[in-house]
Amino acid sequence: MWELLPDEVLLLIFKYLKDSDLNHASVACKKWRRVYIEPCLWRSRTFEIRGYCSSQTERIEQMLTKYVNSMGEYLQYVRVVCHSPNLLTAHGMAACVDTLLSGLSSLKDGKKTIRAFQMSELHFHQSWGCFRSSVNLLADAISAFLRTQTNLRHFDMNDACMSRPHSYRIIKALLKSKSMKTLQSIHLLNFYDSEGITHNVGLQLRTLSSKCCCLKEMSLNYSYLLALFGDVENKGALLPETLERLSLLVNAGDFCQYEEGVMSSEHWKGIHSACPNLQVHFYMDGWPRNPTKMLVPKIPLAHFCIGGARSPHSTPFGRKTSLLLDHLALHFDTTLKSACFFADSHRPSSPSKASLVHFLIKCRKLTRLVFSECLVTLDYIFKMFYTSQPYLMSEQFTLHRCLPKDQVFYQFFKRH
């Protein structure tokens, strides 16, 4: 029966197999071997570099070299995951990454076939901070790889948390590559460590955004954006007009510094006029004292998400949520498409029904609204929608109750 399956069906099945199962399937018969070496099956790969002792490192490097030589020419989307290193495994993991990336760069077409490179969640400051030689080897490997690439479309190093010399080296290598003409998305959330936000970071990001003539998507911390614009008056001129999505993250530890100054409405007006198709996705990791301070008018806000804990003596979650709902309905009713509110608390604290109803009615483009169970309970929803506002539930929104892991939250989806 398996012999009668067409190659297209087998290829679809093989795409769902793990690498180990795929290797076993390749030796079953000649037909399966032929499907196994189909290029489209190897265009996207995730390489998980785990902790290896010194005796295993050499064998893993040989396996990576063999893989790169046989299948590397088909790779287009490369994702490298480094699990938490320790004193015995850090150098071996860095050596494996170096072997993989240098092997891909040395291929005849390896410099132009790779379109996406992702190496997120490195957490240099926490996981690699004690291993100086390993960190240098890893940073050198990434820099050398990026410098040779000519056709990268997507670059993702979210949560790298790198110190200044290594982060500067990697961005400098990216700037020197020919991929500046082809890059369409850059993701640098938490790329620099908390102590590395200096004037030089702003200059680097300014050069990066100005050189990427095809850039459509960019992810930055809010502090990076402030460093990027600095004291420049015409802030819109620093971003490419092709930019369509700007994702901004505000960390809980950064709230104090934003009390002094944030980007004004005039700045955002200039940015929007320079990038007419821009949509901003705003994420807050924590509940600040005044969550509306950074949400100034004129931001082309399409998505807003807030979650985490609050300080012990600050305003309750429910009151802050009401404040946010009123603010979003007042200033972003024509642009907002989705909003998410997650509260890390065991005490229920719901927003006012008037604020929520006003928000749902006012925001015409809203298609998705999410609340954690701490903010909106099932009893709260029943009383509001089925007794006071039945039209909202029955005609405009559908409700879904989700239970991912230890959380419960409710999602409202707008009917089309």
Automatic annotation (TrEMBL):
Q: What InterPro entries does the record point to?
A: F-box-like_dom_sf (IPR036047), F-box_dom (IPR001810), LRR_dom_sf (IPR032675)
Ranges of residues in domain F-box: 1-45
List membrane-spanning regions.
none
Give the GO biological process terms. Answer: positive regulation of protein ubiquitination
**Protein name in UniProt:** F-box only protein 39-like isoform X3
> To which species is this protein native?
Biomphalaria glabrata
